[in-house]
Design a protein that fits this description.
single chain; 106 residues; mainly alpha; 5 helices; 0% strand; transmembrane helix; DUF2834 domain-containing protein
């Protein structure tokens, strides 16, 4: 499963970033413009909030589990989540966690 998590993390980084880069090429590096574009209608606003809540839930889980198990490497999934997306952060954390679980026998 580790390879599956890693492959999903890479896909979850590359695919969304290709869309973000295309948007920046067309509109310039305008983060607020991109945020405005995410809220063009109720459907996209709902999706943005869905992903935001998922990112916050994932962050709480990562922080709690890293603090409980003293496995700090997993914290790198938090900036991946907020700078790229949940599609990268979640499988990245599962990849990192699966290596720790395999080593520690937890």
């Amino acid at each position: 499963m580790r390879i599956v998590w890693l492959a999903l993390a890479i896909w979850g980084a590359v695919h969304p970033m290709s869309w973000f880069i295309a948007w920046f090429r067309e509109h310039g590096f305008d983060l607020m413009g991109m945020v405005d574009a995410w809220h063009t209608n109720a459907a996209t606003s709902g999706l943005v909030w869905d992903l935001t809540i998922a990112a916050v839930a994932l962050t709480v889980w990562i922080v709690w589990e890293c603090a409980t198990r003293r496995a700090w490497l997993g914290l790198i999934a938090i900036p991946a989540t907020f700078c790229i997306g949940v599609s990268c952060g979640l499988p990245l954390y599962l990849f990192l966690r699966s290596g720790r679980v395999a080593r520690d026998g937890m």
